[in-house]
Amino acid sequence: MSDRTDWNDLRERRMAEPGAVEAYDAARIAFELGQSVRSLRERNGWSQSQLALAAGMTQSAVARFEAGGTVPTLPVLERLARALNMRLDVRFSPDVDAA
């Protein structure tokens, strides 16, 4: 059964497909942003509904965002930041993986 593929082979093939790296990066960014907002919301002791009300969103939109299911626009991030009493800070950082 030498034709079996392990996870690393499958991932390598998929990542070689056109657009795969960009899609993976977008998913990573959405996930990281969602986790940051969730952490701030929980630190405030708020429910998703409370954050949604403060940010002018629906609870389901907050849930999708926190789960990394959507890539938000800058205006949405700004509304979330204001609702959480934070300032949105968008910046470029060195890529530690770059040689």
From TrEMBL:
For the HTH cro/C1-type domain, which residue ranges apply? 37-91
The entry's keywords? DNA-binding
Annotated GO molecular function terms are: DNA binding; DNA-binding transcription factor activity
Q: Name one GO cellular component term.
A: cytosol
Name of the featured protein = Helix-turn-helix domain-containing protein
Q: What is the lineage of its organism?
A: Bacteria, Bacillati, Actinomycetota, Actinomycetes, Micromonosporales
